[in-house]
């Protein structure tokens, strides 16, 4: 699913993830990034997912239905309860299982401080 074998897997300059035909090509579903974080056992992968989610909100503070792989300011649905609710579930789970990850800074510059894969 997370490879070029999937025609709806998109990798861009701001994130990578799965999208679908109804939101258009090159549009990533944050839901796919959230599920990736929820199902990963690798802290580096979880951190990468958190970084993508943090840095693709188009400075709205919300998780959108989809965003363009190279331009998160191009997004669908300014409020998408399903994605925001699942994001809350991710944060609650991490607060219980991996609280140290929530203390990290996920700004784009954070990669220089050892948060990269």
Would you write up a description of this structure?
The protein is an alpha+beta fold and 117 residues long. The chain has three helices and five strands, in the order E-E-E-H-H-E-E-H. The chain has helices at 30-39, 43-54, 81-97, and strands at residues 9-11, 16-18, 27-28, 66-68, 71-76. The strands form two sheets. The chain has a three-stranded antiparallel beta sheet with strand order 3-4-5. A two-stranded antiparallel sheet has the order 1-2. Helix 1 (30-39) runs antiparallel to helix 2. The two termini are 19 Å apart. The relative contact order is 0.17. Residues 109-117 have low confidence and may be disordered.
Query: Main β-sheet, in a few words?
Result: 3 strands, antiparallel
Radius of gyration based on Cα positions: 13 Å
List the secondary-structure elements in sequence, H or E.
EEEHHEEH
Arithmetic mean of pLDDT = 90
Number of DSSP strand runs: 5
Q: pLDDT below 50 for ≥5 consecutive residues: which ranges? A: 109-117
Q: How many DSSP helices?
A: 3
**What structural class do helix, strand and pairing data support?**
alpha+beta
Give the CA-based shape.
globular
Q: In percent, how much strand structure appears in the residues?
A: 5-15%
Instruction: Estimate the helix proportion, in percent.
Output: 25-40%
**Main sheet: strand order:** 3-4-5
What attributes characterize this protein structure?
single chain; 117 residues; alpha+beta; three-stranded antiparallel beta sheet; two-stranded antiparallel ribbon; 33% helix; globular
């Amino acid at each position: 699913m997370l490879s070029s074998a999937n025609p709806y897997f998109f990798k861009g300059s701001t994130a990578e993830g799965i999208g679908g035909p109804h939101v258009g090509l090159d549009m990533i579903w944050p839901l796919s990034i959230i599920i990736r974080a929820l199902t990963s056992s690798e802290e580096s992968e979880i951190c990468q997912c958190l970084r993508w989610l943090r840095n693709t909100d188009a400075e709205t503070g919300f998780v959108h239905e989809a965003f363009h792989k190279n331009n998160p300011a191009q997004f669908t649905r300014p409020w998408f309860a399903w994605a925001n609710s699942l994001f809350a579930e991710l944060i609650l789970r991490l607060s219980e299982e991996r609280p140290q990850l929530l203390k990290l800074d996920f700004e784009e510059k954070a990669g220089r401080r050892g948060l990269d894969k």
